[in-house]
Amino acid sequence: MPNSIPMTKTMTPSHATSGRYYHRFGPIERVMHVFLMLTFIGCAITGVPLLFADHTWATVLVKFMGGFRGAALIHRICAAIMIVVFVGHVLRVFVKSFLAEDWLSVFWGPDSMVPNLKDGQDIVGQMKWFLGMGPRPQFDRFTYWEKFDYWAVFWGMFIIGGSGLMLWFPHFFSLFLPGWVFNVATIVHGEEALLAVGFIFTIHFFNGHLRPEKFPMDLVIFTGRLPEHELKEERPVEYARLVREGRLAALETDPPPAETVMFGRVLGSIGLILGVLTIIAIIYSVLF
Amino acid sequence: MPLTFPIQSLSALVIVLAAAFAGPVSAQTAPPAADPNESCMMCHSDPAAKGSSGKSIGVDAKAFAGSVHGQMQFKCTDCHSDVSAEKLPHAPTLKPANCASCHEVPVKEYLETAHAKARAKGNTVAASCGDCHGTHDIQKSSEPTSRTNFARLDATCGACHGNEAVIKQANLPGGNVASQYRDSIHGRKTHSTGSDAAKAPSCAGCHGAHKILSKTDEASRVNRENIAAMCGSCHMQVLSRFNGSQHGIMRQAGNSAAPTCIDCHSAHQIQQHNTVQWQVDVIKECGGCHADFIKSYRDTYHGQVTQLGYTRVATCASCHGAHEVLPASNPKSMIAPENRVTTCRACHAGANANFAAYRPHGNAHDREGDPILYYTRIFMQLLLAGVFGFFGLHTLLWLVRSLVEVRSRRGRGGH
């Protein structure tokens, strides 16, 4: 996407003037994303070869990972960490709600991940904007595609995680579940994994990182901070709300430290490259 | 390879004999030659000697002396019976040595074979006695240096059946069977240094020594109908298990399409059964007939891992048995309902009845047989199609819009 480079250049003078940054993600959220990302990639590159076992690249990849037992071990370690991170997140949401003055704000309203009427309107608005039939919707703190990503992980954790645990511990689950459940679990685990891998490595990558406005990647999930112009331009409703509620000043912060930016760039690049390679392998295998 | 007689051996013999005892005697009195071989060697002892047709007529006397015939003090004329030591020089062209004058039965057997029939039709490439046994240097097959020793047969037969040019020219069945054999468990065993190396069959072990009949011949040991009995002559216990299996029962009922040994093991590339490669490869042989089952197997973890080349998981034989394979309806079958838990427990120690009710060949494309799996698959595929359909379009439109925006922004920027 060579267009992004000139665009960044043309955008820079008019937008980067203030130098002010605002907190968007806290340290726990950033660390969770790093763990989620690494374990997801780990599960993907150890699991996807099974679905395309008749292809040479799958054989070579599995051999490289120490044979199927090595791959299975990596897969299960990643899965276990991912489950811990997920359960930790859910617990944290409830603890946050318990500690908050307004407990409902965690589950409802602009700071929550729960979809609302505005998200529906934004989808329509965004479609109109795509087609040149209207202005770009004014987004609040979380856009509808970000909420979709979030709930997709939730759904995926139950579906893939649940079926994965059944296949990992069949002796335990067969104490109270009939045998066909493991057949269903096999299908569901594989298909849902393809959905998750396909979604994250194409659509999430595009929405979050690869689209021309963000190319090659948006570092906010690693640094936790976004520049003022991005907040104003991309999330004007949130900006206005923060100004109105007098909370903006409390969120202001320095630009992200250089080492954090470097960390994000390196990790993000690794993730993007591995993800894109996985997608290429899948598409190749489906086509040939 | 035209049949030529490298006649070098006899000359040396004469020299040896002359030096040993004939020399001093002949120097004194020079009587007429008592040993007819000596007369022959007057001409044939020169390794460079050539006949009127230009072929070498030299005979290596040393090699002949070491040969089984030399050790038995044969005279040249015992084999070359159309030559008389009294009437020399003999005719420029002689008949081939008549092996049948002594070896009546093997030659009779040979004459019924594809080799002999091809020669009778003018084919000079097909093997005759000398091509396998040699000529003046013939040794007993029990000698390790003999061309027909068990450890050297593959090289001897391989002179043609391992020679790509000959294979192509004569369209020999099976291709380079010598090379295949050498890599097989039988081939590696015959070439091993183990004390039981001779127990493994070399070429003749299966095909016979002289009565090498085409596999299409009903009397051939390697005819499809005779294969099991032939392999079973060594693998007796396997044969008895096979005969009790569904495959064996079908064959005994006259179903020639039912598999016999070579259908799973191949003829010349037989691998050791406990190697990973063989266990992974043989799955494809089962799948060659049981196409639906290998397909559903490949959709399971067992099938995926074996496809990647690993065997810690179940292969066909892990659940069905190998030579003793029987349908689930047979109470002796490993997959009979009453035996399944035991079969699963061979790997999954904690397996119970629920566990054993897992369907190792569950088919998500079979609506009648596996409705739950079928609709699970449909649901998942609709979900995938829905998500990728919506977001695919979403992404595409977004990309186009972003590029349009970039272009117009750049336009405004004066670029």
What does this entry look like structurally?
The complex is a heterodimer of chains A (288) and B (415). The two termini of chain A are 27 Å apart. Chain A has a three-stranded antiparallel beta sheet. Chain A contains 13 helices and three strands, in the order αβααααααααβαααβα. The longest helix of chain A has 33 residues, at 67-99. Chain A has one domain: Transmembrane di-heme cytochromes, Chain C (Fumarate Reductase Cytochrome B subunit), CATH 1.20.950. Residues 1-16 of chain A have low confidence and may be disordered. The radius of gyration of chain A is 21 Å and the shape is globular. Chain A is mainly alpha-helical. Chain B has 415 residues and is mainly alpha-helical. Among the domains of chain B are: 1-97, no CATH class; 271-356, no CATH class; 371-415. In chain B, 51% of the residues lie in helices and 0% in strands. In chain B, α18 packs across α19 and α19 crosses α20. Chain B is elongated, with a radius of gyration of 34 Å. The model of chain B is unreliable at 1-33 (pLDDT under 50). At the A-B interface, α1, α2, α3, α4 and α5 of A face α20, α23 and α24 of B.
CATH superfamily of chain A: Transmembrane di-heme cytochromes, Chain C
Total helical segments of chain B = 24
Which pair of protein chains has the largest interface, and what are the residue counts?
A: A-B, 54 and 54 residues
CATH topology of chain A: Fumarate Reductase Cytochrome B subunit
Q: Roughly how much helix do the residues of chain B carry, as a percent range?
A: 40-55%
Q: Kindly state the number of beta strands of chain B.
A: 0
**What best-fitting shape of chain A do the alpha-carbon axes yield?**
globular
Bin the strand percentage of chain B. Answer: under 5%
